[in-house]
Specification:
- This protein is of the alpha/beta class.
- Helices cover 32% and strands 25% of the residues.
- The chain has 8 helices and 9 strands.
- The protein has helices at residues 15-23, 29-32, 40-57, 81-90, 101-109, 114-118, 155-166, 202-211, and strands at 69-75, 91-97, 122-126, 141-147, 169-180, 190-192, 197-199, 214-221, 232-239.
- The protein has a 7-stranded mixed β-sheet, sandwiched between helices.
- The mean pLDDT is 94.
């Protein structure tokens, strides 16, 4: 008898259980960052530096080398930590995509977001999961930010999602993926039964990006996180075949 291969890690993803898990998490920085709120500052600084490098190297980007982007979107936004600390200083308008209602309610009502709401810097808030969300026709983004959320999509769902958002980029824009990467010795993806997500290997991400007809224009590791955590890698993506 031949041995039966183990199912791929993403076969274990259960969206309803993931929603249930996150619905039980407190809407604060500690909850969003899994008990490591101290990494927020260095995480955001690493992301700012990454975007700055993209802009310096780009031949065509909205806002030139230092001006504001017209529109960004925070995908899997949680309570809007990235919107507040990273995207709102970079973008005139930031849309929000987040499936947990109490998290989007936080963005719509929290005093910390009052200045952004008053300035109309918060655009459309979609209380919707990424696997079902598509940018509306005619909307174009300079920056599509995905951080610590794509592990809740199966490989097939992720390919289709990236195709959708890649097709909604303005000329010179980027899809940014910032995610944990697997350290499995065999290069395998790792399933987390607590939050029902998958930590993918770097090579898996690269394969998925290619399947989504996106090319990597820059990638680097986040530095400065505590030992014992997964390495975190940033990828900036643009559609294949376009010179930008």
């Amino acid at each position: 008898m031949s041995a039966t291969a183990d199912p791929p890690a993403d076969a274990n993803i259960d969206h309803s259980k993931a929603i249930s898990y996150w619905s039980g998490v407190d809407p604060d920085i500690n909850g969003m960052l899994g008990g490591f709120p101290q990494i927020s500052r260095i995480d955001v600084q690493g992301s700012r530096n990454f975007v700055a490098k993209l802009r310096r190297a780009s031949k065509a980007t909205a806002g030139g080398k230092s001006g504001k982007f017209t529109r960004g979107v925070d995908c899997g936004a949680g309570i809007g930590r990235i919107t507040l600390r990273l995207l709102s200083p970079l973008c005139t308008t930031t849309d929000i995509v987040e499936p947990i209602p109490k998290f989007t309610e936080h963005i719509l009502t929290s005093p910390s977001f009052a200045p952004l709401r008053a300035a109309n810097s918060i655009g459309t808030v979609y209380t919707q999961s990424l696997e079902s969300w598509a940018p509306p026709p005619g909307v174009r983004y300079d920056l599509v930010w995905n951080q610590w959320c794509l592990g809740h999509l199966t490989d097939a769902q992720l390919v289709e999602y990236l195709r959708r958002v890649g097709g909604a980029l303005r000329e010179g824009g980027w899809v940014v993926v910032k995610e944990n990467v697997s350290t499995d010795p065999g290069g395998e993806d790792v399933f987390d039964g607590v939050d029902h997500s998958v930590t993918r290997a770097d090579q898996k991400y690269r394969s998925i990006f290619a399947d989504a007809t996106l090319k990597i224009v820059r990638t680097e590791l986040q530095n400065g996180f505590p030992k014992g955590l997964y390495p975190v890698r940033m990828y900036a993506l643009q559609p294949m075949g376009e010179q930008r």
